[in-house]
Amino acid sequence: MSRTEKNLVMTKHAIEAEFPETEVLAVVADITSMEQVDEGFNKINQAFGKIHVFVSNAGFLPVPRPVLGSDFDVQDWWTTFSTNVLGVLYSVKAFARFAAERACLLHISSCLSNIPPLEVGQSAYTASKAAANKLFDYMALENPALHIVSVHPGLVESGMSRKSGHGGLDKVELPGHFCVWLHSREAEFLRGKFVWVNWDVDELKARKEEIINTDLLDTKLGGLSFVGWKGVDI
Q1: What is the share, in percent, of the chain residues with pLDDT greater than 90?
Q2: Which of the residues 100, 109, 154, 199 could staple to 50 if both were Cys, CB 3.0 to 4.6 A apart?
Q3: Where are the bilayer-spanning segments (predicted)?
């Protein structure tokens, strides 16, 4: 599902050429439109039935500008939230109506949302991704039957990475393979956590008990422990 039909068709043809027995459905929808998103998921459900995996990857990056700069465009800044937060919420709610038992929901976020600012002009993208991180934290808390993980996908070559001025450093296979692993039983201990595709899977597995029993990889303020806090005391 994407708002850009040309990209969808190209991807559909590429997948079908390499895997001719795979059925691919291309659905055009703008995720800032709840009606289009609902219609799109209805089509997916009619074609394939219950949905086992949903990768929430839609995103918008405005032209980087300092917040208090004279050429700062407030509407362009807010459009980022319309896509990266509200649009994501629309799509996840539509997915939830058709989610299979123990379905997997992967939120493609960004490392920029949980590290100190690195450069000027990125406030809209990073703030919207940070807001979405907390949104998915609550989804995980409120929906224990869903396997929900937020993911930093690395830096691969894309229109958005080129717009940011950084291009690509990672191969696209890295996030692809990592997300496939996240859907496996082996990665169930990462439910509700924030992970980077650049991390070593074996090291993550070796620290499984620590990750489960502490707030390691939670979205939180560094330096403070919230272990055992259930809304009563710290």
Answers
A1: 77
A2: 100
A3: none
